[in-house]
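FAQ

Q: What does a record look like?
A: Structure on top, sequence underneath. For example:
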């Protein structure tokens, strides 16, 4: 593709002379998280030490990290909506808090337009990279430039007097960070170092050293211990956390990956209590940094109450942390091999405490016993029982784990003896030595569910082939008998060739399964049913007639469904059992027999500004449409469960790239004027983390709408009995879907806000509530592959991960004691359609795997076997260059979705590559679908993919690839086990990088982007219509929120208490949310649930 100039090639190979440190983060999610992950890898490869913070980071978190970690640069990937405010606020905070020399770099695809780039760079942002910069400089060239601009020694900023680091103000902590840099670079003022050492020696401050094997969960455990200390001691104590990660010997770079795992180090109620610093081992070849003794002394001199040191992962013979700390602690997992391996672990000699983390793994109880015995032998403590040894079984990944609390209690007593100033604790004491109350989401004996499904699908297909062979032979033998009789009518006795042939036929016919025989018997009737002008079905006493033909302008009759002309029973049976007509098992060709008359699968997608503006957009989009399919995009403030706020990095996002919804009042305005219980109205809400709260708001809005209707019609309030009846009727009739699929959120790095376990529990609560209240027409979860694709997955990974997530929910709900047919029909799927050939058969493969698994493995009924799915055209194939060409890609993607009988379809607007779509571009996007459905002749036929050799082959290839992926996930302990090791996320990132590299080199041609480039350069419009929320809308949202809070100030606290109690008691949380949303705002509910359900812990 682009031949980079010598200058940019040199930048791509730049290696710094000083130690360069960077903070990397994404202000939002999905593709941006994948992108910043790629950036931080390249930064590390160039020799930088990178503190990666992951997605959805506030400006304050990024700046605090930059100041405490004392970095030279910050690199941020930022999405549209609030990006100008975000970057400006970052520059402001850095200036206010002693970080004016920290350079800020950013990029956001095409969404940060040229005028905004100039404005931000003039304000003080180091550089904002545009897609054009990427093409000119190359990815490595851009990153090389960032490293070059930050390649300077900043040890000179270190303080000269010990008083500068004391006092715990912002300035003191900043001075401490700068002193640590000088200590690391061995350039600290000698007199100051001496003074620090002298002061440290006079202070009685305990140092806890946490070490252990790589990946044992040291960071998560450290975070959980800090959270308990802060809760238990009323957040009085100040803690310094020094975390060490290894430097790469080859490049000198390092991934300082502990800070991303920390949820408990942020200020609580405006009080900063935890200082954290990440160190790289640099050239020591050990698990600790050479500067560590000096750093510990500096933290003591600064006056912290407790210093925690967390080392990098260690091997069996490593114990370098021991002489530097007062209390060494060793963290391991149950997977250490044979018990004899324990004799080789040096730390079991020195550790005062041992934590066996990930205690839900196989063999955990044996590990606890064996490790305790080994510690007993090492200490020669034979006078005590092995159970009394300080060995604890913990699950740091699980919120409020009692094993971690037991470890905390034991540590607390030891640290108090070393001078930690403790008061009476607030946390209730526990009397266990390991994690109890384990209720796994998927029971251990069921973790092979995906391998079983793969075997089941392959087994079904093998049976089909075997049955096809039998019916073919039966037909051939009977035909042979017929021809023999025709040749010699006399030969009809019980002997001779004809009789032998018929006997062979009967023997084979006896081995034909009943379902296969029935399909062959019914074939003539099926041919007849589809051959007329109308298809007639009798349901109870009603006749439903569907027109089967349309006529072209030339008079050609086009059939809605064309049947194959097979005469061979083997081929026919294979087709009937593996393909069949739309609406018949295994639903390969379509979920329903026919599309609804006069209802295109078009979804009207809107979300911008406040509820009033989006409501107007919905009315505009659905004008003249018999069906109102309202798809809602929410702004990122709502997506992350926050309330609107004047703080710049939140304020800027209010109503941008989606609608701002904070309260039930907002939601009522959003869907005002639409009858939410009309069968032709269906609402889709693209919301994830806070889905339960938004769903509860929606259900309440629908109930209130019908109660108001009753009041208008009857001129009075309904009685309690009438109100209850209205409520139950609404719940049974309301139609739509909510995304809520937390598994893909974790895999695609999206809007996870609560701990995965808690989110899955509440999803189960929703499904249970739907069963009890007969909610049949609303999908309790839309299991999404779109976001997995947006984060960079290829079509096979998208399909495999999404289906496996769906089966995981099935297993989780079954484990809760629910019946398959009560919840499976309320699951729906959401895929992305891109440009790859596999997308043509995505629906075919998904429907067949789901139907066969549901019928053969789970014994589910016909309703449960039918997979319903929504398609959105690919956001990843919307390019910021030659944006008008995007509509061509979208048209092709929409066409294959319609050919594949998707149940609903959303076409992206061409300008979404750079802005929230405008009214004009959304009309064009809808026109694409309307033109295909109304004008495109072949779209009048509803099974155009059937019978094409390439479609059949692709279906088999993609299906086998998906089943192979199921087996790989199964080997890792199912979806949840694979997520723990980051399998899905790693694969998504690899595939994203592969695509980006091929796009960059030009091997993968993209018209207008890397080939067929505009000879006049990229016409980046200087003045493009940007759909942004207005100042009035933002202010109005703040006022409406304050008004809501004021009106419900008396009721909200008790309701929050009730909600938290429901979580603690493991009751149905959604049931309480249905009441809570009437008096609490989204942000209030989110904060309350964080306290009892746990926050999502990010990872790379």
């Amino acid at each position: 593709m682009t031949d980079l100039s010598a200058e940019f090639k040199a930048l791509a190979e730049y290696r710094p002379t000083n130690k360069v440190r960077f903070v990397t983060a994404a202000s939002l999610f999905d593709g941006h998280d994948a992108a910043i992950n790629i950036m931080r890898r390249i930064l590390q490869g160039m020799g930088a030490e990178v503190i990666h913070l992951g997605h959805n980071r506030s400006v304050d978190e990024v700046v605090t990290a930059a100041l405490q970690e004392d970095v030279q640069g910050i690199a941020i990937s930022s999405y549209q909506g609030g990006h100008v405010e975000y970057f400006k606020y970052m520059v402001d905070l850095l200036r206010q808090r002693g970080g004016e020399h920290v350079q800020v770099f950013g990029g956001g695809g095409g969404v940060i337009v040229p005028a905004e780039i100039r404005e931000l760079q003039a304000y003080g942002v180091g550089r904002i990279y545009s897609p054009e910069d990427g093409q000119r400089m190359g990815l490595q060239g851009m990153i090389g430039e960032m490293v070059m601009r930050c390649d300077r020694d900043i040890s000179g900023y270190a303080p000269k007097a010990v008083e500068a680091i004391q006092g715990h103000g912002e300035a003191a902590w900043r001075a401490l960070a700068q002193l640590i840099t000088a200590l690391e670079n061995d350039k600290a003022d000698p007199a100051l170092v001496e003074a620090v050492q002298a002061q440290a020696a006079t202070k009685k401050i305990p140092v806890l050293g946490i070490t252990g094997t790589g990946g044992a969960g040291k960071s998560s455990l450290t975070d959980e211990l800090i959270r308990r200390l802060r809760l238990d001691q009323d957040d009085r104590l100040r803690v310094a956390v020094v975390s060490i990660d290894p430097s790469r010997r080859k490049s000198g770079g390092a991934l300082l990956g502990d800070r991303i795992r920390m949820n408990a180090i942020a200020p609580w109620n405006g009080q900063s209590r935890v200082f954290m610093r990440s160190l790289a081992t640099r050239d020591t070849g050990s698990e600790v940094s050479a500067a560590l003794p000096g750093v510990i002394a500096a933290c003591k001199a600064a006056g912290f109450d407790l210093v925690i040191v967390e080392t990098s992962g260690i091997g069996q013979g490593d114990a370098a942390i021991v002489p530097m700390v007062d209390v060494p602690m060793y963290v391991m997992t149950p997977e250490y091999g044979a018990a004899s391996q324990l004799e080789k672990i040096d730390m079991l000699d020195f550790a005062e405490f041992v934590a066996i983390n990930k205690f839900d793994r196989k063999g955990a109880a044996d590990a606890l016993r064996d490790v305790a015995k080994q510690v007993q032998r090492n200490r020669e403590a034979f006078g005590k029982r092995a159970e009394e040894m300080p060995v604890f079984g913990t699950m740091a990944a699980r919120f409020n784990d009692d094993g971690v609390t037991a470890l905390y209690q034991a540590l607390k007593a030891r640290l108090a003896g070393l001078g930690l100033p403790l008061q009476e604790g607030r946390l209730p004491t526990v009397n266990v030595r390991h994690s109890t109350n384990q209720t796994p989401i998927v029971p251990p004996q069921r973790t092979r569910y995906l391998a079983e499904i793969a075997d089941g699908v392959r087994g079904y297909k093998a049976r089909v082939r075997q049955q096809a062979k039998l019916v073919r032979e039966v037909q051939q033998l009977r035909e042979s008998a017929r021809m023999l009789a025709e040749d010699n009518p006399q030969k009809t006795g019980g002997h001779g060739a004809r009789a032998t042939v018929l006997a062979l036929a009967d023997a084979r016919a006896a081995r034909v399964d009943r379902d296969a025989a029935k399909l062959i018997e019914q074939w003539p009737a099926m041919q007849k049913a589809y051959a007329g002008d109308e298809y007639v079905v009798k349901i109870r006493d009603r006749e439903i007639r569907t027109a089967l033909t349309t006529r072209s302008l030339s008079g050609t009759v086009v059939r809605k469904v064309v049947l194959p002309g097979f005469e061979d029973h083997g081929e026919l049976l294979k087709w009937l059992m593996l393909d069949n007509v739309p609406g018949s098992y295994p639903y390969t060709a379509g979920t329903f027999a026919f599309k609804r008359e006069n209802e295109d699968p078009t979804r009207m997608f809107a979300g911008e500004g406040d509820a009033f503006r989006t409501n107007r957009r919905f009315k505009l989009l659905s004008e003249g449409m018999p069906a109102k399919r309202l798809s809602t995009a929410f702004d990122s403030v709502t997506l992350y469960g926050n309330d609107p706020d004047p703080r710049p990095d939140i304020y800027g996002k209010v109503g941008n790239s989606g609608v701002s919804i904070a309260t039930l009042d907002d939601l009522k305005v959003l869907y005002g004027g639409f009858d939410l219980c009309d069968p032709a109205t269906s609402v889709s809400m693209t919301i994830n983390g806070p889905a339960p709260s938004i769903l509860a708001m929606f259900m309440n809005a629908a109930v209130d709408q019908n109660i108001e209707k009753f009041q208008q019609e009857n001129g009075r309030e309904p009685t309690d009995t009438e109100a209850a009846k209205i409520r139950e009727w609404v719940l049974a009739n309301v139609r739509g879907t909510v995304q809520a699929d937390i598994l893909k959120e974790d895999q695609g790095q999206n809007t996870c806000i609560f701990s995965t376990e808690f989110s899955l529990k509440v999803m189960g609560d929703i499904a249970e509530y739907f069963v009890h209240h007969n909610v049949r027409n609303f999908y309790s979860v839309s299991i999404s592959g779109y976001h997995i694709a947006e984060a960079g997955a290829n079509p096979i990974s998208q399909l495999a991960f999404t289906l496996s997530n769906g089966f995981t929910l099935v297993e989780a709900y079954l484990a809760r004691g629910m019946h398959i047919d009560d919840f499976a029909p309320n699951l729906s799927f959401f895929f992305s359609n891109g440009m790859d050939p596999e997308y043509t058969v995505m629906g075919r493969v998904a429907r067949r795997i789901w139907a066969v698994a549901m019928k053969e493995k789970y014994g589910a009924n016909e309703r449960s076997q039918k997979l319903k799915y929504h398609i959105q055209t690919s956001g990843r194939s919307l390019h910021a260059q030659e944006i008008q060409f995007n509509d061509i890609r979208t048209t092709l993607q929409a066409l294959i979705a319609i050919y594949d009988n998707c149940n609903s379809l959303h076409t992206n607007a061409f300008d979404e590559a750079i802005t929230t779509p405008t009214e004009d571009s959304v009309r064009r996007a809808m026109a694409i679908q309307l033109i295909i459905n109304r004008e495109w002749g072949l779209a009048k036929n509803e099974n155009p993919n059937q019978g094409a050799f390439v479609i059949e082959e692709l279906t088999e290839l993609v299906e086998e690839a998906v089943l192979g992926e199921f087996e790989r996930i199964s080997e890792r302990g199912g979806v949840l086990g694979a997520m723990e090791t980051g399998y899905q996320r790693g694969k998504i990132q690899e595939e994203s990088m592969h695509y980006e590299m091929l796009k960059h080199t030009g091997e993968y041609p993209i018209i207008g982007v890397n080939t067929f480039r505009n000879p006049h350069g990229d016409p980046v419009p200087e003045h493009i219509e940007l759909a942004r929320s207005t100042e009035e809308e933002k202010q109005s949202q703040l006022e409406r929120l304050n008004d809501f809070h004021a009106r419900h100030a008396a009721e909200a606290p008790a309701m929050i208490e009730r909600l938290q109690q429901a979580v603690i008691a493991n009751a149905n949380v959604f049931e309480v949310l249905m009441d809570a949303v009437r008096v609490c705002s989204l942000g209030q509910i989110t904060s309350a649930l964080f306290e009892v359900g746990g926050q999502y812990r990010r990872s790379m």
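Q: Is there anything notable about this one?
A: The chain has a mean pLDDT of 92.
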